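question for whoever is on the cluster today: can someone run the full assembly for these? two chains, 475 residues total. i dont have access anymore since they changed the login thing
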Amino acid sequence: MNDLLAIFFGMALVNNFILAKFLGLCPFFGVSKKLSNAISMGMAVILVMIAASLISWVIYYFVLQPYDIVFMHIVIFILVVASLVQIIEMTIRRTNITLYNALGIYLPLITTNCAVLGIVLINVQQEYSIIESLVASIGAGVGFTLVLAIMSGIREQLDLADAPKCFKGIPIAMITAMILSLVFLAFGGIV
Amino acid sequence: MNTLGVIILTMVGFGSAICIFIANRYLPREAEHLRKAEEISGILPGMNCGACGQAGCFAYAQALAKDKNVIVENPCMVLMKNEDAIAKLEEKLGIKIASTEMSKGAIIRCNGKSDLSFDYKGIDTCNAAVQLAGGYKKCPFGCIGLGDCISVCPEGAISIDKEKNIAVVDHDKCIGCGLCTKECPQNLIEIVSLDLPQYLGCSYTYKKNIVSRERCDVGCIHCRICQKTAPDALEWDEKKDLPRFVEKSMPALDAVKKCPKHIIIPLALDIADDVKDDKKLSNN
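^ ran it for u. tokens below:
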């Protein structure tokens, strides 16, 4: 149990995907303008990360390893993740229209997101079991959502801040992200 | 071993394809209005310009599927120029769309020919040029003429008039999407209904100790002759020192004719040929 907690908090806070591993920076700046959008995006990422890490675990240990073609894992994971996101999008669209309106436009964005591929590859690299990779993917998704929500909260205020003219918009957001990244360094000691 | 890798990769690819096929085949169909929205979005231009006020074409289609009167209140400007698409949409929604009445276009409130105050050799955009001492033209309100609006125009309807050194809109091509209005640093472009009889082609606003005559050959000289000839249609805006149309749709043919600088520019107004000739004479 302690191991699982360590993995969860390690993924969510210490090795945060955005601020420590620099994965998924595109949605970090693209979707962090409004809090509601950031939460929706984060939820979509959590959902896709869980599904992707489970299915890729199965493929890695039951297809790639027995046939000794582990070197192909990146290309096969990309293929699997992309088609998985398609199926998830289709399912949500056909079954729950409210959920689709909340998450729908973010799902295609995630299809080729490096954060999703990242969690899949890290699971394999760390040789996690299926339970561990499930916990790791939830942790990574929660960390992603957390940072996105924090950043969007800051950016909503930042628009009103009296920044120098040349720093307005993205430049000041970059500097804020840098400070946020330094703040998250403080979590380094907890795991 | 390499061949095995390729075979497995192909099989995974086929497996994913079959999964998507099965999901597509056996999942229940989507809700009725979403399917309708999808059909409508097939007719819509799909350029996601946002001129209708919705987030994109699909969002507009969803709004249309819910309430067909949206097309009357917030018409899709791009669609209004396309008769085939309008016919299809009329059939789908079951209402009549008066497309010609609703069609809109961009106008530029500058008539050009301002002298240059200095030679600008900087970044080649209006937005950069206007940051430097308010632009390189003597008139601080005029069109910069470096074509920020051209770069955003999806239809290529805007071009630079070489002689006047300002942007001009080709109304046959303009779809009235309004992307250029946001781009112009001088806020000179406006989207108006194309059945507007005339518009004011100068944006000079009153500033102390500046007389627009000194800077521009075709700018307003504040003679108020337009207001005197057509007092019903026009009034004088003392604050801006410019004429203002009281009733926008009222034709003011006399004012168009009388304006010594020809800055009241006819749009839908049917002007007689002699006025056109007059104009040519005075311009030369």
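summary bc i know u wont read the tokens: The radius of gyration of chain A is 17 Å. Chain A has a mean pLDDT of 86.
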